[in-house]
Design a protein that fits this description.
Layout lengths: L4 E5 L3 H13 L3 E5 L2 H11 L3 E4 L8 H10 L7 E6 L4 H9 L4 E4 L4 H13 L1
Parallel strand pairs: 1-2, 1-3, 3-4, 4-5
Helix pairs in contact: 2-3
Length: 123
């Protein structure tokens, strides 16, 4: 069985690199994007199973990226897990209404993040 593909979208390079290393060590195939625009392009090219999405980014932010991905018939079934440094109730409610399945505070413990990803993949 091919490894599940995860797209990590964050404007912080250290977050992208750290998550990519952790996910690949856990058996996933991981790609990275630095903003919402790049996320949309890679989502079409790579069709990930899960997108880990930051909210606050320059250019196309996580809210807009989530809305656009979920509005695209080819991408709407991709699970979106928001990982944000701004996990307010309002932000999490807003992005969930736009289609995200989960909203977690950054940084998230490795065990918690892997559990959430695996739960999304099993759903």
């Amino acid at each position: 069985m091919a490894p599940k593909r995860i797209l990590i979208v964050d404007d912080d390079e250290s977050v992208r690199v750290g998550l990519k290393e952790m996910l690949e060590a856990s058996g996933f195939k991981a790609d990275t994007a630095k903003d919402g625009f790049e996320a949309g392009v890679l989502a079409i090219q790579k069709t990930p199973d899960v997108i880990i999405l930051d909210l606050k980014m320059r250019g196309l932010d996580g809210f807009s990226a989530c809305r656009l991905i979920k509005a695209n018939p080819l991408l709407k079934n991709i699970k979106i897990l928001v990982l944000t440094g701004y996990p307010s109730k309002a932000n999490c409610e807003k992005v969930t209404k736009l289609g995200a399945e989960r909203c977690l505070a950054k940084p998230a413990a490795k065990k918690k993040l892997l559990k959430e990803i695996n739960d999304l993949l099993a759903a």
